[in-house]
Amino acid sequence: MNDVLVVGAGPVGMTMAAELARFGLRVRVVDKNAARTDKSKALVIWARTLELMDRMGEGVVERFVAAGMKVEDAFIFAGREEIAHVNLGTIDSPHKYVLMIAQSETERLLEQELKRRGVLVERQVELVEFDEGDDSVMCTLRHADGSLEKVETKWLAGCDGAHSTVRHALGMSFDGSTMLDDWLLADLHLTGMPDPAAIRIHWHADGVLTLFPLGGTRFRVIADVGQSQTSSEIGEGNRPAPTLDKVQRILDIRGPGGVVASDAVWLSSFSINERKVKTYRGGRAFLAGDAAHVHSPAGGQGMNTGMQDAFNLAWKLAMVERGLAAPEVLLASYSEERSAVAKLVLEATGKATAMAVAQGGLKQSIRNHVASMIFGFAPVQHTVANVLSEIAVSYGASALNESYGFGLAAPEAGKRAPIREGDVPVGAGQTPRFVLFADDAEVYAELKEQYGVILEGTVRAPFAQGALWLVRPDGYVGLRAKAGDVEAVRGYLNRVTRPMVAAIA
Question: What pTM does this model have?
Fold first, then answer.
């Protein structure tokens, strides 16, 4: 029997499988497609995702960086006049940039990581149905030759995209809406580009134009083209792809001027969906990524949010399956935490899109003036950089949070713990462990004896004097208490984990 069957081998599914395999679980990954995507698709990996990938092992992030392009600047223009600049080099992270990398490369590198851990993606294998029992899920898989296979697994992870079979089988409503506007997407080569290593967003009276650098003269172009005049179904592949001439006309009207498009790699039309399930769990089945939430591509948040779903769930499933944690506490927190994050992402990207496509001279003039004014302040630029990079993601309302004492220094429970240069990433290794940041390491010797499997053996220096922090395996603060409050640490671990099992494991 497998511990986890992962359905879907996109970036989210392969991240989920790689993390579960790292923690020693028996994982199987199936995908109905015959091969990885050969398209660039989602091409942004933000700093917080890279931080979580640092935990996967030495050299993982370096391989992604080598295959992509670091970008540190993003500009907004009103027509051809610069009105805002976001310096991504100010992100509060070791990764002070956004990594531009084609999804085809992201999937290739993740599949390499899976192979390194002994897991092979099974392609042209489709989940047909599943039935949940008390202790397992019985799944029916259809292979390329039409044969059916019965597979028993303890847990099912639905990472199978916006048309998720797992979500449909669970009967979950995908609430939200579809924008009626059509958009074009073009991956091609541009010559005559100013600032070829920067992201450029052009707000024009006719609409928005966004230019993402992919290295050399290759760029991603995205633009809205107004409400559709056809009656065919909205969405990629259902409308005619734009022509290179159409892309060039939009560049001439909305772009920086003097830019010539050529050698199109991919031309497509798409629409924007904003949808989300209410809960990410149905018994022993979980949803992650586009199976649980889809939204505007503004800010490149989609794939990152999905991959962070996977990072959140993987360590919790691993602790539960290895008998190190109480399932009712940890697994309930997955939907609670990640659903709240997706809700915020939906709201933020929806507002950003509405702002970008605002129509009417007065609305556009007010938008441009306000953007120019607020982005003129360095603290605003810094905050925006942290929000875009998802460094600002937190779990403030999580049931896993505990805090004791008043007036204690940051970070508070639910926040991302600061990452200090030279520190081993929290959560690295083959066992998901909590890490204690506190003074007086000798005081905590008893804790290490009792919780040795689930608590890192080294007590790290506190983030500030007068307090201690217990940080979760995904790098978020679970507990903040007064310095020396050993009982608070013990009480937290007793509630969230199974210390006696951990002590003898």
Answer: 0.94
